[in-house]
Write a structure and sequence with these properties.
Elements: H1 15-18, E1 24-30, E2 33-39, E3 42-44, E4 49-53, H2 59-67, E5 69-74, H3 80-87, H4 96-99, E6 104-105, E7 114-115, E8 120-131, E9 136-147, E10 157-161, E11 164-167
Antiparallel strand pairs: 1-2, 1-5, 3-4, 4-9, 5-8, 6-7, 8-9, 10-11
Length: 185
């Protein structure tokens, strides 16, 4: 393989290459109020632990902190315009379920609603928080997971910065390179 030719790249734009995974919609509910936010700042921390960065200025931060619960919903490419619009408005302007004509589906383990139009919904309870002045990290334990049976590998969206997204591409298998005990982990 030929070595790529590198050039300096702006540090503040590395997210273009290092985004952790698909953009998700985080739904919350507390004391009769519900909310949805678009979230790209998340990471798997274990098999059932997910870390999320939720900025304190977002209404969802207060709802998640107060309720200690959320649902991480997995939208697909067909919801991309809605995902972008949700991320560019405030919950202070009204209920986003109503505004974007999304279906609030009752969850089984948490009070936060699931989003019916999403491919998957992962009900979460707060495991711990790491709140610093600059980085409010919520660590969630997934307590129940729901996913559509088809397609097995949905077309998820990934944010690349500057208003640009990438849709997940074709799957490539390298199962033959894995030890059997390392598969499905």
């Amino acid at each position: 393989m030929a070595r790529p030719r590198w050039k300096d790249f702006p540090v503040e734009r590395v997210r273009r290459f290092l985004e952790p995974g698909p953009v998700v919609l985080l739904s919350t509910g507390w004391r009769g109020e519900r909310g949805i936010m678009t979230l790209g700042w998340h990471m798997m921390l274990g098999y059932d632990l997910v870390g999320t960065y939720i900025w304190q200025a977002n209404r969802s931060h207060a709802l998640a902190r107060g309720s200690r619960q959320c649902v991480i919903n997995l939208p697909t490419a067909d919801l991309l315009d809605t995902v972008a619009r949700i991320g560019n408005c405030s919950g202070a302007d009204g209920d986003k379920f109503d505004r974007f004509d999304l279906t609030a589906v009752p969850a089984r383990e948490v009070e936060a609603p699931m989003i019916g139009e999403c491919h998957g919904a992962f009900e979460c309870r707060l495991h711990e928080t790491r709140l610093t002045a600059d980085y409010p990290l919520f660590v969630w334990r997934v307590v129940r997971a729901h996913a559509a049976a088809s397609p097995k590998h949905p077309a998820t969206v990934h944010y690349r910065g500057e208003g640009r997204f990438m849709v997940s591409g074709r799957e490539v298998s390298r199962r033959r390179l894995f030890r059997p005990d390392m598969l499905d982990m």
